[in-house]
């Protein structure tokens, strides 16, 4: 279990936790590379 959202404003705008975003970005890059090789 981790912290996904760092801040949520009263307008319901969410600011993601940087480490969580970086992990997702890494997974996205890997998936894009796999697709481009096909």
UniProtKB/TrEMBL annotation:
Domain of life: Bacteria
Name used for this protein in its record: Putative transposase
């Amino acid at each position: 279990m981790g912290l996904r959202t760092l801040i949520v404003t009263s307008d319901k705008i969410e600011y993601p936790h940087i480490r969580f975003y970086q992990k997702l970005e890494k997974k996205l890059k890997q998936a894009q590379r796999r697709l481009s090789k096909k």
